[in-house]
Structure to design on (311 residues):
């Protein structure tokens, strides 16, 4: 099975519980709940939700569920709160958290967008309980978003993917670090598609990459403008197991797009924005923001997703 067949047979199946969370499910007033980072803790699924308040600014809140689908318990107090005096680059929001457990550090690391009058930058925090987080600070200056850490070192160095905005050119880049704080050795990993491509205008990492037999599986978003509107879809790529800045394969087109009513209408229609991914048995559970308003889940067989990378 190749790309066409896999995509045509509906690769991802949407949860019948979608949307899993809406603004009305928050235990406080919220304008939107979107783009969740996802991990597991004590046998539960934990989401780091971006919740936009009625003033227009976003905090990151923790939500927990036993089955990863229903019965979400949302924390009232944010784990990352915008607007704190000592964190000047978060004046306008903490957005789009991605989370990964670093076994070596015995902690979760959270990469997120720190939004302020200086622009959108990449910030890093860590947590050993997913109740409180300790900020490390910015790791990339504006404009830069969509940073995801790999869960292991490569030749002694940690690796990250991120998406700097080079004056409208928005490719996925990598960086390496000894200490998770000082990052260098840039490589351009996955360029925007350009031309008429589905991901012509920009690409950005979705959830942190997952290790498979063939290499690191990366789900990313790609954006194309149609009549002045930006359409966000998801694609898939494979990165080299030992040298993760090396792109091995990239799906020739998108593998998931807005089709359900809760994806096609909302604050920003026609946006699917994957930001959390779990490998459960032989299935990928992909958590995503829909229409910048809701949190959703779709699942697919890992082998079917891998097939989209074959001719
Ligand atoms: C990006 C980010 C995301 C958002 C997406 C689609 O630039 O702001 O938070 O989901 O646009 O609107």
């Amino acid at each position: 099975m190749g790309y066409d067949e896999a995509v045509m047979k509906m690769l991802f199946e949407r949860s019948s519980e979608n949307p899993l969370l809406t603004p009305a499910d928050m235990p406080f007033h919220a304008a939107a709940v979107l783009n969740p980072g996802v991990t597991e803790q004590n046998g539960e699924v934990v989401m780091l939700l971006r919740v936009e308040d009625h003033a227009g600014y976003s905090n990151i809140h923790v939500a927990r569920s036993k089955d990863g689908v229903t019965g979400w318990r949302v924390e009232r107090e944010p784990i990352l709160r915008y607007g704190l005096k000592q964190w000047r680059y978060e004046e306008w929001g903490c957005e789009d958290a991605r989370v990964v457990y670093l076994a070596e550090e015995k902690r979760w690391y959270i990469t997120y967008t720190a939004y302020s009058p200086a622009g959108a930058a990449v910030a890093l925090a860590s947590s050993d309980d997913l109740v409180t987080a300790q900020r490390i600070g910015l790791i990339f200056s504006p404009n830069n978003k969509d940073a995801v850490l790999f869960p292991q070192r490569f030749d002694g160095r940690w690796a990250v993917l991120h998406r700097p905005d080079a004056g409208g050119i928005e490719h996925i880049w990598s960086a390496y670090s000894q200490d998770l704080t000082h990052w260098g050795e840039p490589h351009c990993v996955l360029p925007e598609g350009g031309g008429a491509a589905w991901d012509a205008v920009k690409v950005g990492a979705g959830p942190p990459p997952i290790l498979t037999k063939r290499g690191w599986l990366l789900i990313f978003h790609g954006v194309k403008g149609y009549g002045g509107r930006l359409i966000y879809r998801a694609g898939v790529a494979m990165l080299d197991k030992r040298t993760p800045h090396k792109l091995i394969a990239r799906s020739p087109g998108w593998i998931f797009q807005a089709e359900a009513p809760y994806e096609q209408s909302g604050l920003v229609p026609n946006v699917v924005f994957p930001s959390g991914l779990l490998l459960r048995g032989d299935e990928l559970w992909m958590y995503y923001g829909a229409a910048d308003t809701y949190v959703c889940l779709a699942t697919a067989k890992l082998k079917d997703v891998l097939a989209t990378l074959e001719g």
Helices lie at 3-8, 261-264, 302-307. The chain has a mean pLDDT of 97.
